[in-house]
Amino acid sequence: MSIQKNPFPRKIKILDTVYKIKYHNTETLIMVVDDTKEESSVNGFVDFDTCTINIRTNGRPYSEIWSDIWHEIGHVIKSYFKIKMTDDLEELFMNLFTLGCNSVIMDNELKFDFSKKRRI
């Protein structure tokens, strides 16, 4: 039996900060909401204190996992630029934006090579 390597990034630099990305192969991923100590079951969340993005995998399709990665990156960018919006609007925007980005990438089979040696 071969062990499949996780194809997703383990860390990613977002603007001027490197974030670790942890993958959780669990049925549920629990996030404690703000200071309320209320727990919520989610597919991903950002821990800004430890600069860690947490993503639930558990046999989910790659496209969903990538959507969640992009979704959480969006939260980091929003926070970095101190963009103000309600929690509901923020979640709606992140969901729609990541859906659109994934659609463009997958429908066009885009692959990115940002090597500094490559020129047009």
Give the helix/strand layout.
Blueprint: E1 11-14, E2 17-24, E3 29-33, E4 38-42, E5 44-47, E6 52-56, H1 62-80, H2 87-107
Parallel strand pairs: 2-6
Antiparallel strand pairs: 1-2, 3-4, 5-6
Description:
This protein has one domain (11-107): Zincin-like (2-Layer Sandwich). Helix 1 crosses helix 2 (87-107). Strand 5 (44-47) and strand 6 (52-56) form a beta hairpin. By secondary structure, the chain is α+β, with helices and mostly antiparallel strands. The longest helix has 21 residues, at 87-107. The chain has 2 helices and 6 strands. It has helices at 62-80, 87-107; strands at residues 11-14, 17-24, 29-33, 38-42, 44-47, 52-56.
Q: Quick recap of the structure?
A:
The protein contains 2 helices and 6 strands; from the N terminus they run ββββββαα. It has 120 residues and is an alpha+beta fold.
**CATH class category:** Alpha Beta
Oligomer: single chain
Overall pLDDT level: 87
Question: DSSP helix count?
Answer: 2
User: What is the total domain count?
Assistant: 1
What can be said about the biggest beta sheet?
A: 4 strands, mixed
Largest sheet, order of strands side by side? 1-2-6-5
Distance between the termini: 43 Å
Could you list some keywords that capture this structure?
120 residues; alpha+beta; Zincin-like; four-stranded mixed beta sheet; two-stranded antiparallel sheet; 6 strands; 26% strand; globular
